[in-house]
Amino acid sequence: MRLLVLCHNHPDLQPGGTEVVARGLFRALRDRHGVEGLFLAAVTQQHRERRPGTLFQSIGRHPDEMLVWLSHFDRFHLSQVDSWGLGELVSFLADYQPDIVHFHHLLYFGLETLDVVRRVAPKAKIIVTLHDFFALCPQEGQLLTTDDRLCPGPSPDACRRCFPGRGGADLTLRELAVRGAMAEVDLLLSPSDFLRDRFIAAGWDGARIEVQRNGIAGGPAAPYRVAPDGRRDRFGFFGHINRFKGSLVALAASAHLSRQGVAHDLALHGGTAYQPDEFLTGFRTALADAPAARHHGLYSPEDMPARMAAVDWLVMPSIWWENAPLVVQEAFRHGRPVICGNVGGMAESVRDGVDGLHFPLGDAVGLAEVMRRAAEEPGLWERLAAATPAPRRMEDAAAEHLALYRRLMGLPAPRPEPVRTTTSRRAEGRARVRLG
């Protein structure tokens, strides 16, 4: 089996959830199952300078991970109009002839690349994982209106309100192009039931969309913070600092708690790259207005345990639906309960009152009240921390993907690995509570 994995960026350049999952799966398939392949990440001038002579570049010391420099991408139509770049992809595919082509995003590659693969490597099976709603929503795939209201799904009138400068023909042509290109795909994957349901509600064929949940890399869990006074009032935000992830909501909640005299600490971990000046100005103002909050900047996966050790709760204040947020699994790996919005992929991942707490989406005062309860209610943190589930392992996700690839190729399923017994997350959590 020869595998080609395509993603819209490389996690060493932009450590987003999709990039981390895509490369993690690729490496697990390579290292644990011996799958031969290539991880190809699309970049633009924003991420890496173009070099003369070729659009392909190396990254790091891994010969099976490469970058392809693509420009002229039309984000509204998901269209790559760089014919020269597509021409180099044609030459590459004609030579490489993969058996499986797995797209983890179509950004920068464009819908046209699906057609290129089908024409140049006709025997290859094509898979697309729908990590977000870009195929449905031209508003950056968020299903979020320009005035920050949740959108239940695309419609001509609703989409024109977000794009008043676009005619109905543009919206119709976009939908036809997306659906036509996706007809070339052998299988669509969704990391959550919620995302699959959104696509079905928009008229997509549910029989073509399978749920394949993301996994995360393993590693030791961070110890619980020693709390001599018994208060569990340290809250952590982990993620990119941008409009959609809700850092402004978290800061407003923290400022509200400080005005009410509620002792707490809010640590924001994440970078601010590629954000507009208007947002960054608002972020700095909100940070200055929240005396109990600190921004600790960008972090690497290796930094996560040490930073997680300093917090009791993970706060996820995203203002959009989300899909299958990796940060929830990271929190559960370290036995931290999660406070998140009460809708979408967040609500699917976190059970209110079991392993976390919900608050009304986008409501800073509502979040502040839940944070107050989290800090002050006796025994609440201990009960929820003990119930955090073990996250899905990357090696398990890779094994399921390999079985899926083989099924599409008409090959027998791989022999299952021996079952290994592990200590349950619940028992492990209780032990950590006693030690903490």
From TrEMBL:
Residue span of region Disordered: 413-436
Pfam family name, one: Glyco_transf_4
Superkingdom of source: Bacteria
Domain Glycosyltransferase subfamily 4-like N-terminal, residue spans: 15-216
InterPro entries found in the cross-reference section: Glyco_trans_4-like_N (IPR028098)
Amino acid composition bias (Basic and acidic residues), ranges on this chain: 425-436
Protein known as: Glycosyltransferase family 4 protein
